[in-house]
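Page 47, continued from p. 46.
Same chain as before, 186 aa.
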Amino acid sequence: MNAHPPVQIGRRGLAAPVLPPMRVVLFGAGHVGHALVALLGRLPCVVQWVDERDELFPDEVPANVQIEATDTPEAIVDDAPQGAYFLVMTHNHALDFSLAARIMRRRDFTYFGMIGSKTKRVKFERRLIGRGIDPERLCEMTCPIGLPGIVDKAPTSIAVAVSAELFKVRSQQAARVPCVASLERV
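Result:
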């Protein structure tokens, strides 16, 4: 049995681990959610797209996207796979907080990001601490989301910034995976 993940040889002749698709759990079917699904639908990931408002989902989605119309989105958090990438961008601050508290109770996610401002983050941090979340773990919550420096607030621009951030996290995770030494070109 091979102890190392499969590798592929890049352009520079270096071995890199072949990573499985990211498992993204996206809460929210608003404008940004739609833009994000359109982009993630073309990338190596599996997206579980969750919202209470089933009328907001399009009739067709990319093959790697699964629609989850549910009255209990919080329950989806518990069923998500280990290593999931959680994205919270619902229409409701109370639901955002409920999801945040549920996600932060888990200790096995790869990423948790929430759309919002620095002010929203501060408010949620106080409330999460009040609910028993260790203050040292608050660094595991990314809010606002997206690569820093991208200030355009158009849904597609936010989707690009968020997707880039997810792939940056994925690359950082890959760097921690044991890898076969560099191979010379033949």
